[in-house]
Specification:
Keywords: Aspartyl protease, Disulfide bond, Glycoprotein, Hydrolase, Protease, Signal, Vacuole, Zymogen
Strand order of the largest sheet: 3-4-9-5-8-7
Pfam families: Asp, SapB_1, SapB_2
InterPro entries: Aspartic_peptidase_A1 (IPR001461), Aspartic_peptidase_AS (IPR001969), PEPTIDASE_A1 (IPR033121), Peptidase_aspartic_dom_sf (IPR021109), Phytepsin (IPR033869), SapB_1 (IPR007856), SapB_2 (IPR008138), Saposin-like (IPR011001)
Largest sheet: 6 strands, mixed, barrel
Radius of gyration: 25 Å
GO molecular function, one term: aspartic-type endopeptidase activity
Shape: globular
CATH class of the largest domain: Mainly Beta
Number of helices: 13
CATH topology of the largest domain: Cathepsin D, subunit A, domain 1
Distance between the termini: 45 Å
Helix content: 25-40%
Subcellular location: Vacuole
CATH superfamily of the largest domain: Acid Proteases
Strand content: 25-35%
């Protein structure tokens, strides 16, 4: 008996040690999905900038807002088409099929479909870097075949609908419609750390009118309450990324009471909010009210340019591309002038300073091969691509000034002035990492309460040591009426405030995260 007792004890110890992050407890009947977290990667951000540039930045995003066939009102705005998952930091694991095939997904409150790569995805490189769903290996698979495509801010996916059981934690959602992607036309999905998306928005924005996973959890009686909640861990030193809790909320994830506001328009988790304060000063535009969306699939806080400009001015932020441009001018400006004065071919200048390659007729970027070989650690080629573009612009600007017989000092000043006017493709800005202590807080008026973010909470740090770059957590995005002015409150906001999505009462709750 003693041997059996020791064996049982050892077995129990091993079970506890190896017990997965995804679990539910018999005491509270909550289903918890542990989230993995990764640091924001500099090369991923550069790739996002390049893709955004090709898509004509925010103007293109706004043209792509409309998602045909699901929203009804022609003037309605589809935030899904704006989404850029390049900076996504939080992922969880689900299973599809019987036996389960595991996938890492973003739990995204800003969209409503579930999709993963298909084994029938033959011609998209991205599919070869992620696990693929194989319907032939699942006993519970049911064919559907209806075509589907979704346009995002930095790319698109297309494929077809299928039906199978989906495992979320220890819940098994039966007969769930989802998209098998056969084409992922985006660099984002190639180098992403996630395989797919699990949307937690409303059915009103679901492509193909598919019933969302969350709806089926409720309809099949799998959760004790029609409520789910997010806790995102923003501690950079902690390996625990956070938790999505289905069926309620965990009191250990928040402090005090939640402030609740009603959902004002189904589709996204949208509500009305009031004034935005910088320090204790009003910014004015939202004093009479703005709309806001809580979106776990977005990293930053985006809002009206009129307010973001005030925020960035207060924190001393400058455009990401402006800074890259000034770096090129500072390091290579004099050399570019000298090469042009020595009658070198302008098309060769950027290759001569090492920022571009030369194909015999013109400078070309050096980043294409590195993207395909990202797993080999060569994604830094995207940085060269951006620098090459900046260099080519600088050569044109310098040439125009040399033709006017300007001095070197005047030429460099002029090029720097043009750098200041370059827009950031993703609407993002950088700040001095050493200035956080002098930056003001930024607060949002929600449900009559002031919810405040400190500089440490709204500034994102990319990289380490001397190469570290601090990114403003605020991005500009102008959405016209009737839906705008609109704020999208992403992970920067949700990291500070534990967020409850109360489907039963159609309300959203915020409390300080523990």
């Amino acid at each position: 008996m003693g041997t059996i007792g020791k064996t049982t004890t050892a077995t129990l110890f091993l079970c506890l040690l190896l017990f997965p992050i995804v679990f539910s407890t018999p005491n509270d009947r909550l289903v918890r999905i542990g989230l993995k977290k990764r640091k924001i990667d500099r090369n991923n951000r550069m790739a996002a900038h390049l893709e955004s540039k090709e898509g004509k930045a925010s103007e293109a995003f706004l043209r792509k807002y409309r998602l045909h066939g699901n929203l009804g009102e022609s003037e309605d705005i589809d935030i899904v088409a704006l989404k850029n998952y390049m900076d996504a930091q939080y992922f969880g694991e689900i299973g599809i099929g019987t036996p389960t095939q595991n996938f890492t997904v973003i739990f995204d409150t800003g969209s409503s479909n579930l999709w993963v790569p298909s084994s029938k995805c033959y011609f998209s490189i991205a599919c070869y870097f992620h696990p693929k769903y194989k319907s032939s290996r699942s006993r519970t698979y049911k064919a559907n075949g209806k075509p589907a495509d979704i346009q995002y801010g930095t790319g698109a996916i297309s494929g077809f609908f299928s039906e199978d059981h989906v495992t979320v934690g220890d819940l098994v959602v039966k007969h769930q419609e989802f998209i098998e992607t056969t084409k992922e036309s985006s660099l984002t999905f190639l180098i992403a750390k996630f395989d797919g998306i699990l949307g937690l928005g409303f059915k009103e924005i679901s492509v193909g009118n598919a019933v969302p996973v969350w709806y089926n959890m409720v309809n099949q009686g799998l959760v004790i309450e029609p409520v789910f909640s997010f806790w995102l861990n923003r501690n950079p030193e902690d390996d625990v990324g956070g938790e999505v809790v289905f069926g309620g909320m965990d009191p250990k994830h928040y402090k005090g009471e939640h402030t609740y506001v009603p959902v004002t328009q189904k589709g996204y988790w949208q509500f009305d909010m009031g004034d935005v304060l910088i320090g204790d000063q009003t910014t004015g535009l939202c004093a009479s009210g703005c709309s806001a969306i809580v979106d776990s699939g977005t990293s930053l806080l985006t809002g009206p340019t009129a307010i973001i400009a005030q925020v960035n001015h207060a924190i001393g932020a400058t455009g990401v591309v402006s800074q890259e441009c000034k770096t090129v001018v500072s390091e290579y400006g004099e050399t570019i002038i000298d090469l042009l004065l020595s009658k070198d071919q302008p098309l060769k200048v950027c290759s001569q300073v090492g920022l571009c390659s030369f194909d015999g007729t013109r400078d070309v970027s050096m980043g294409i091969e590195s993207v395909v070989n990202e797993n080999a650690g060569k994604a830094s080629g995207n940085v060269h691509d951006a620098m090459c573009s900046v260099c080519e612009m600088a050569v044109i600007w310098v040439q125009s000034q040399l033709k006017q017989n300007q001095t070197q000092e005047r030429i460099l000043d002029y090029v720097n002035e043009l750098c200041d006017r370059l827009p950031s493709p993703m609407g993002e800005s950088v700040v001095d990492c050493n200035s956080l202590s002098s930056m003001p807080s930024v607060a949002f008026t929600i449900g009559g309460k002031i919810l405040e973010l400190t500089p440490e909470q709204y500034i994102l740090k990319v990289g380490d040591g001397e190469l570290a770059q601090c990114i403003s957590g605020f991005g500009a995005l102008d959405v016209p009426p009737p839906r705008g002015p609109l704020w999208i409150l992403g992970d920067v906001f949700m990291g500070k405030f534990h967020t409850v999505f109360d489907y039963g009462n159609m309300q959203i709750g915020f409390a300080e995260a523990a």
